[in-house]
Specification:
270 residues, 8-stranded mixed sheet, 4 helices, 16 strands, 16% helix
Length: 270
């Protein structure tokens, strides 16, 4: 379970890089009930461009939103994991065969961040908290409830992320001989603090990234079908579902209007 009691190796933040901040804010507002709070922008000025800010649910910060500036990059959600030392984690990433995309840097006194790619290209980030610990709401409707990696090599992913974060892994057979889903729990925490999973898929099925692994967020919603209807009504699309997953809930894999992927899930139990 993802919580706001953030510990090393647990998700603490997500943000979206998008080519159209205004459109993305409107889309997720319609689908998840988020309010957008711009930061340092000349909002309302004629011709002014909204460059980014915070997304909130019931007054609590759930995510960040910013202009996609990396040349050739696709619009996607970035998941950040809490670490005690961003510089030490960077060294661990490099030792394990990963790549440093953004070296550790301070964001004033809020905290210290860095972004990486795993050895097969899956992108993720870390956050060393300062006065900002991360999101203020999790595992509740309209907030992050799970993180998920699609990769072409599950064994390699377990080795890499286990080395970097010390994550614990457990296998869950999927119904109908559909393979194995691997559950992720932060180091030293009990099974009820599971925070995500990883799934091995053939490279040909990783169409969003031309075969490269990718992480995506899972958002809790009170009604999966209603959320999917809002996705399609507001210019998004659906890759899979809605469908029921035994013991998990009802879910759908969706794309926003800029093709950033995410999952909506109505859990079986809260």
């Amino acid at each position: 379970m993802i919580t706001t009691e953030l510990t090393a190796g647990s998700p603490c933040w997500i943000d979206l890089g998008t080519p159209d901040v205004r459109a993305a804010a409107a889309f997720y507002g319609a689908v998840l009930g988020w309010e957008y709070e711009p930061m340092g922008e000349a909002e309302g000025a004629e011709g002014g461009e909204m460059e980014g800010g915070m997304l909130k649910k019931d007054g609590k910060t759930v995510a960040g939103l910013g202009k996609l500036t990396e040349e050739g990059a696709r619009s996607a959600w970035m998941i950040y994991y809490t670490v005690d030392d961003a510089d030490a984690t960077t060294q661990a990433v490099e030792r394990a065969g990963g790549t440093v995309r953004v070296p550790p840097r301070d964001l004033e006194d809020w905290g210290r961040m860095a972004q990486f790619s795993d050895p097969l290209g899956g992108q993720f980030a870390v956050w060393q908290p300062g006065k900002d610990k991360g999101f203020e709401l999790a595992d509740a409707p309209g907030s992050l409830s799970w993180t998920e990696l699609f990769t072409s090599d599950a064994a390699a992913a377990k080795e890499f992320y286990g080395s970097v974060f010390g994550w614990q892994f457990s296998d869950m057979p999927l119904p109908g001989d559909a393979g194995t889903y691997i559950l992720i729990t932060p180091a030293g925490l009990p099974a009820e603090r599971m925070q995500g999973g990883l799934m091995e898929l053939p490279e040909k099925d990783l169409t969003l990234t031309n075969g490269r692994p990718y992480w995506h967020p899972v958002f809790d919603v009170t009604d999966c079908d209603a959320a999917v209807a809002k996705v399609t009504e507001n210019g998004g699309s659906v890759q899979m579902g809605p469908e029921d997953a035994e013991g998990v809930g009802r879910l759908a894999i969706c794309l926003d209007p800029s093709n950033a992927d995410f999952v909506v899930l109505t859990p079986t139990e809260r």
